[in-house]
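Because discrete structure vocabularies remain unfamiliar, we turn briefly to a single example record, giving the amino acid sequence and backbone structure tokens:
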Amino acid sequence: LQVPCAPNQPVSSESRRFTTKHSKKALKASLTLGVLLGMFFVAWLPFFVTNVAQAVCGCVPAGFFDVLTWLGYCNSTMNPIIYPLFMRDFKRAMGKYLPCCRRSGEPRPSAISLSMRNSNSGPRAAASLKNVL
């Protein structure tokens, strides 16, 4: 059996650009995921290995176990640092809501606009919400 081949079609620059753009996004997403998972394993794997060793032989000093526990906790501290470094959308969102990260020309969003944006409500709900407040 032979599978019929499609005739060679010239690849347009539009499809080449599309492929390149998506491959760059996929590469960046893979890099971000790799860094996050790598940091997770570096922070938590020693804790879990030591925890198993403690259950089997009981030979792990309490101070060392505490240090490894806090190393795992530091992973949670690293995530807010890693996300803005690798994700532009996350950085923009944090800039909107944190006063320290906001650009000088951007207005501060009000609580009503945040609530309306998150609830996907229409303009009629906004008018009634303003009457309540």
Notes: The CA atoms of residues 98 and 108 lie 9 Å apart.
